[in-house]
Structure formats: C-alpha cells, structure tokens
C-alpha cells in the first residue's frame, strides 16, 4: 500500500546468495531509519545493496558516507510537489482534522490519498524502474516487504491473507485495543468494512496500471500477495496478540541499540538533576516548530516539575521556559532514553521513539499529532506504560503536569514499561538478526513458498466456505422436503385407506 | 486432549528460574522419545526435572540411567488394563477398520475413546496427583503443552483458539492437503463439524470432573486454554502453511541429530551395497510382528530390488527373504537414515521416523498402519517426497517394488526430500533450542500472558461477530422500513392532494 499512513517500503532481493545482490525500493521518513539499519547489516555481511530513488525523494538523499549505491530515476513529480503534499497532509492532520466530521475527514483523506497515488503511479511510469513488485516479477526474484501496518490492516488482510477477526483484532489506526465492548466491536467492524471499500476504490488506478503493464487482468493486491516474506515492524511488546501467518515475521524495534555515552555538557546537565532525574521530550523529526501559544503552554507545564527536561525543538524559545528545561535542536534520543537518570519520555508516539522507550523500559507521556501516533499511544496506554493527552491544542499545562507526575511517581507505569522491555529483549532472536535471516533465507532458497498459505488461491466465498455451506444447506432442504412429502403421502394413504374402509363398512 | 490419536503430553513448569523446577505429566509411546530429549536438555542447563508417572504406565519406566526423578502414583487401572486397551486399539486400527463402514468406525472409536477416558480420569482421582492443568492451577505455575496434534485440530481450535479455515487447513487425520477440490472441502467441513460434536460429547465427563474438583462450572477446554505455550511437534517442512497464534511454537524434529557411525558388521553390510545403496525399513516400535503372508509378501518384494535392505523386524524369518535383505531386532534408525548410502526409507509413517527422514533428506515409501500415519504420509506424498501404499493387507509385492523404484530412480523424490531437509535446517533456531527457550521463558517470566489472544474471553458468537452483524442488520432493516413508510406517506399525500385538487376543480 503506498497510501500515506500505510507505511510500506519494499525490498526486492535476489540471489544466488552467499554474497547476493539486494535491490531496494525507495521509502520516506522514519521508515528509512529502520530500513537503513537492515541494509547496513546486509552490507556488513558481504551483500551488495542498490537503492532505487526517485528524483522527488525528500529523505533518501545520497550521502558520501553511505556504503550502498543509490540509483536515481526521473519522475514527473518534483521534490517540491512531494514537500507540498507532505505539508498539506501534516497541516490537515494536526490542525484541521478535529474541526471536521467523520465524513469530511474521509473525503479530505481520500483527496490527499488520490494525490499521493498519482505521484506513486508516476514513479512506476519509467519503462525501467517500475513499481517494486513489477520489478520483482520482471527479474523473477523473491520479494520482501517491510512495513509497520496498513490502515485497518487492509493490505495484510486482503492481500497478505492474514486472518483478523474484528472481534479481538483492532484495525490499525482505530485506537481500539484487543479488549472491546459491544459498541467498540461495532465500530471496529464498520472501520474494517469502510476501509475495505475505500481500498477497493483507491486501488483501482493501480489495478488498471498493472493490468495494462502485464497485458492480462492483474490486481494490485494479487501482486502484493506474491511477497515471500512480510517483515512487520512490531512485536508482542507493542502489538496485541493476534493470529498471523508463517511468512509474517515480527521484527519491531530492530533499530534499537544500547545507549552510548552522552556529549559532555549534556551529561553534566543530566547529572545535575540529582535523584529527581530527567524527562526526555521530542515530537519527532517531522514537527520542528509549533504555534507560540502551544510552546508556551508546554514550557509552563515543564517548569512545574522537579525533573530536568531535555527538549528537542527547532522553534523560537518560549517565554515561559523554566530553569529546569533546556532546548536542543537535536538530541541523541536513544542514548538519553537509555540513561539511568531518565524517568519519563514525552513523545508524539512515532513507532521508532516508542520502541526506543520500550527497549530501555521508560514510561511515556503521549501527545499524539497525526497518522498512526494516536493508535500507537493507545497501545502503550492499554499496556499501562503511558498516559496520553487528547490533543496538542486542547491540552492544558495541568494535564501535562499530572501526566508526568503519574508516570514518574506511580510505580505501575515504570513496572509495565520494564515488563514490555523484558518481553522485547527476552526473545529467541534479536529483531535485526531475524530480519536479516529471512532476507538472506529468500536469497539462499530463491523465495519462501513453503510459508505461503493456499488461501491466496481461493476466492472470498471459497475462503469462507460459503459454497460449501450453500451446498450443505441445499442438501438439507431437499432431504427435509422429500421427508415431509413422504410423510404426507403415507399419512394421506393411511387416512384414505381408513376412509375407504369406513365407506365399505 | 487425552483421547488416543490426539497425542498430548503435558509439561508443567514452575519458577523462579535460573535453576528452576520442572514438573512433567506422564506421556506414552513415541511421545516420550521426544519429551525425554527436551527434559535431558533442561537438566543439562541446570534445572530439576520430576516426572509424574501412574503405576499403569507402559513406557515411562524408571531406569537407572535416567537423570530425572520419577514420582509414581497409584491409579485404579493396572498396566495390564493399559496393555489390553492398546492391543485392542491396534488390532482394531490395523485389521478391523477397513471392513467397517464410517458409522461403525465412529461408534467403535467412541467406545475405545470412552475406555481410555475412564482410565485417564482414574489418573486424576488421586487427591494429590490430579490432571496436569489442575496441578498447574493449584500450584499457580505456568503450563506448557507439547504434542503433535489433536484429531481435526479440535483441541487447538476449540481450546487454544487457533484459527483454522476449513477451506485450506485440512483437519489432522483427514488425509487431505491444503489444496482441496470442492468435494474435499465439503468432506473437510463435515470432518470438522463431526469432530467438534464428538469432542463436545466426549469431553463431558472431564467437564464434570473439573467442575466437581473446583466447585465452580469449569470446562476441560477452558482449562486447556490457560496453557502459556503450545509446543507443536511439526514445522513447515511437514505441515502445510496455516494461520497460527503467538503462543504456538512449531518445534517439529527436535529429536533429530546428525548420524553417528554404525556398528562394524552393519557398516560392512551397508558398504557391500556398492553404488546401489541401501533401503532402511521399519514399521515402528509398536508393530513388532505381522501375519506370515504379509511378511512373505514384503520379503518377496524386497528380494527384487538391487539395493541391500536393513529391516527392523521381531517376527519369524519370512520364507521368501532375499539374499539382499537382513532382519534386525533393532536398528540405529537415525544413523542409518543419515548414512550416505541410504537411498530410501520404508516407513509406517510415524512422525518421529518421518522427521528423521526429512532431517537427512531421504525419500520414503509409506505403508501406513493406524492413527496419524496415513495422514502423515499424505503430507509427504503431497510434498513429493514419498510414494504411499494403500494398506498393508492389500499391497502386492509389485506395488512395493514399483514404489521403491520410483523414489530411488525418479530424481524428483530425492530433490523434494532434500528441499524439505533444507527447510528443516534453514531456520532461525534449532527446534530443540526453541522448545527449551520457551519453557525457560515461562519460568523466567512466570508465564507468557502477552502471547495469549483475547479470543479466549469471547463467546463463539462474539468471536464470529454474530451479535454485531445482528445489530447492524436490525438497524438496516429499521432504516429501510422507516424510509419506505415515509416514501409511501409522501406519495399518498401527493396523490391525495392532487386528487382533492382535481375534485375541487
């Protein structure tokens, strides 16, 4: 799924292995952070890595320090188009969305998604650099997906054939948990149904593109379903337990690593916090500035807590900034979260940041902004490791202070964060090693067909056995009909013979 | 499930770990072979292992060489009762079953199962040594199951909550594959439904026993569902890919190991086979003798092939035994299968033997006898690694010769066996290590609740969202009803006003 919020990046891998060649389809934003670590490990293990990047890419710029080769290709959209689109999406998500009703949000989202889709299709238009699954098909090489989720798990369900009973598997982005009331289960069901309908409409242009390209009826979903391995960037520390398939591998937190020492002046500031410790605060790489009243609200709240605060912020210094708070243009977030003085993490709820907090066992205060962030934080809240604000615009200083006091002073939050950390670390294999293992597996074995369920070759009514039920029901009805007819016949005969007998008498 | 053919053995594990105490519920037959290896590894890692054995146990006899302590407990059934039951079951399965119709088989099987159940319940009757899940509940310790399957996956589906769409997940023992025709899907559906009904009836005595024991309504299934980890003794080399759950771990083949050198005289016999190589032949530990005509049929077939044959057989020497065939009371099966001269394996299709063949990449000729063997061999046939005889009684010498010639001379069988072997070996962790990891995990973490799906807390109609559908359907009907009523009202009004207008005019 290449719709915004669906967070898919693609890896096309080809053998023969020992030292293989890995072809990588472009990705944007924080997904690149994750992918890069996997690719660097592959290079360390002797593979060649080539990344296909459209000219319009914003994040995947070639840097001299990078050890893999970037292969650029021209597309009809420009980087400016891409940036404009991203700005429009961010503005809509953070500042407009809560003033609209559900239908308006859906309409606006569809409009934005259509725009993104046009840009995505333009990336397929070059005769050499087509879409990643087309590349895999054309080169006859195995295909590996790596992503966090698709909206309401539509791609995983419809194309990957993963089972997801709406009664206990909340749709991604629904903010629901696995424990749902009757009303919540109705909401989840409607969410699934509406997103399925949305995707069927939204994927139509891709279906047409693919059909035209291959010269035979080919759907977007069918091509996605050919992937050998789906590397999902969560695990059961973050995700609610749910059914899955042998070719779905949960490698969440693969970018996490032990904390490194802090820069000297930062370490001094952290140490100056004494027993109270520190609070780490970042709203992620995409939100660098905020309206003055918002930053003042936040700064005034932070000024009220006894902890020292390290705040990653690119905007103007707020008037209400307390003596305990320092603003940094950039912070070594993972190293700070792994510092023994860290008591809490104020986060927008991006998956990468949440995973660093889970890795180091730090409780969170969430200020969700857009995309999957409210949903991510709903997971952390349900697992007892976070307090979550409703909205950055409606949050009052006291809410933030109360939230911070709760996660710092109520031991249950720290205990739950540590429990998630234990779950994260106590697994048979590190997530990065597992991701690399399965990429190398498809290189060694030319795919992983033995992990692909037969469900891919069934129609929806076959999958749900509707044809079988229809047949059994028909048989049952015919049997009952014949039975009743025969009963009637014998009863009639019985009555008739007794009547004729009476007559004769 | 403690019904014969369901192959369940139970492990009750309790912490605190580093060096923990492991309490093991008894098991019989070839299951003990698997379990023992896991237990020995646990002892090697510093844990204490105590095995609870009823006096009536046939296989789990204390031996001096064993490093774990057996704790015996008295039951009202004797070892002789147990042996009689087993003999009756074997006789029924191998020699009676094919002369009966399906209903007769089901009735007879139900009678045998009831007898086994009575014996099982008698094991629970002692006030100290109750059933394994009761022990876990009473001691408040984590519970680990390890087994191969339950009939039609009933226990895994109904109690473990594993999803199993009948459209592509063949019921265990059905002899079906994941690729089913319309007719086969009907058969699979009926198999699921009949076994569900069978289990609901057959589990009633356990439900009653559990309810009485706990003094509150408690079902057998509910108690099984409390297991932290289900160690399933298959993997995707043997099993068809299917949906599963985070607390289901597939550890098939954990008993396999590299081949050790053969005894000197055996090695000389094997080497004497030259380029033709050898065939290894065993019908497992439970069938030691067979009728003279059967052994003569087999021996005359084996005499016709150019390979040397090593046959594990405890009965009288057949008259037709060829010069190329040697009979042994016992063979080092794993070492023989791993020998470079081995060309084929004639097997009854027990899981342990099949896994040894997969481990070493040896194609098979199957002569299924009873229990899960026909189903196991159907898997190997579907994966192209075996030729399977219908039945030991109807097999003609030429069938066996043809089967052996096919798997030895048609390279596809060897290729497929080697492919399964690659799948078996090329996994992130060895199955024995994985089994031990998860047992130690529940000891370290006092369970694995984070892997247990919420489905356990839903009713069947909630799980399938039937209440949600009923509600949505009601809303739809009401809305449509009101809509049509309003339409009718306005149309009537419209007509009426136009009529009255006409009248006035």
From TrEMBL, chains A, B:
Keywords: Glycosyltransferase, Membrane, Signal, Transferase, Transmembrane, Transmembrane helix. InterPro entries: UDP-glycosyltransferase, UDP_glucos_trans, UDP_glycos_trans_CS. It is a single-pass membrane protein. GO terms for molecular function: glucuronosyltransferase activity. The chain crosses the membrane at residues 460-484. Its EC number is 2.4.1.17. It comes from the Eukaryota. One of its GO terms (cellular component) is membrane. It catalyses: glucuronate acceptor + UDP-alpha-D-glucuronate = acceptor beta-D-glucuronoside + UDP + H(+). It is found in: Membrane. Pfam families: UDPGT. Residues 1-19 form the signal peptide. Its main location: membrane. Belongs to the UDP-glycosyltransferase family. This is UDP-glucuronosyltransferase. It comes from Cyprinus carpio carpio. The lineage of its organism: Eukaryota, Metazoa, Chordata, Craniata, Vertebrata.
């Amino acid at each position: 799924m290449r719709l915004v919020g669906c967070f898919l990046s693609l890896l096309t891998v080809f053998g023969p292995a020992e030292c293989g060649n890995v072809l990588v389809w472009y990705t944007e934003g924080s997904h690149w952070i994750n992918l890069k670590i996997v690719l660097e490990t592959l290079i360390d293990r002797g593979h060649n890595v080539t990344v296909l990047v459209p000219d319009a890419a914003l994040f995947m710029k070639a840097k001299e320090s990078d050890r893999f080769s970037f292969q650029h290709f021209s597309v009809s959209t420009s980087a400016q188009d891409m940036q404009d689109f991203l700005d429009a999406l961010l503005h809509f998500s953070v500042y407009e969305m809560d003033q609209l009703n559900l239908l308006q949000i859906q309409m606006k989202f569809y409009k934005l998604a259509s725009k993104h889709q046009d840009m995505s299709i333009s990336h397929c238009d070059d005769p050499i650099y087509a879409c990643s699954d087309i590349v895999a098909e054309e080169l006859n090489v195995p295909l590996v997906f790596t992503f966090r989720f698709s909206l309401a798990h539509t791609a995983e369900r419809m194309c990957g054939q993963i089972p997801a009973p709406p009664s206990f598997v909340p749709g991604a982005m629904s903010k629901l948990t696995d424990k749902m009331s009757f009303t919540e289960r109705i909401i989840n069901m409607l969410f699934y149904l509406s997103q399925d309908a949305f995707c069927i409409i939204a994927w139509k242009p891709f279906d047409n593109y693919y059909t035209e390209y291959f010269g035979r009826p080919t759907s977007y979903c069918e091509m996605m379903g050919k992937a050998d391995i789906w590397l999902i960037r969560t695990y059961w520390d973050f995700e609610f337990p749910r059914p899955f398939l042998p070719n779905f591998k949960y490698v969440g937190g693969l970018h996490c690593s032990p904390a490194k020492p802090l820069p000297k002046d930062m370490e001094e500031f952290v140490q100056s916090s004494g027993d109270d410790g520190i609070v780490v605060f970042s709203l992620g790489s995409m939100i660098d500035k905020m309206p003055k009243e918002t930053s003042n609200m936040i700064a005034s709240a932070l000024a009220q807590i006894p902890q020292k605060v390290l705040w990653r912020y690119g905007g103007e210094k707020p008037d209400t900034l307390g003596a305990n708070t320092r603003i940094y243009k950039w912070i070594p977030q993972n190293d700070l979260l792994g510092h023994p003085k860290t008591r809490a993490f104020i986060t927008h709820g991006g998956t990468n940041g949440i995973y660093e907090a889970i890795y180091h066992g730090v409780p969170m205060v969430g200020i969700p902004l857009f995309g999957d962030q409210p949903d991510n934080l709903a997971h952390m809240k349900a697992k007892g490791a976070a307090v979550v604000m409703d909205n950055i615009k409606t949050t009052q200083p006291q809410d933030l202070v109360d939230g911070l006091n709760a996660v710092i002073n109520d031991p249950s939050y720290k205990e739950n964060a540590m429990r998630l950390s234990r779950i994260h670390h106590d697994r048979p294999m590190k997530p990065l090693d597992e991701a690399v293992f399965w990429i190398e597996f498809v290189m060694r074995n030319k795919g992983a067909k033995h992990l692909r369920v037969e469900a891919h070759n069934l129609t929806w009514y076959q999958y749900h056995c509707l044809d079988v039920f229809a047949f059994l029901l028909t048989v049952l009805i015919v049997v009952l009909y014949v039975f009743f007819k025969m009963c009637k016949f014998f009863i009639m005969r019985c009555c008739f013979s007794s009547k004729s007998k009476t007559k004769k008498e």
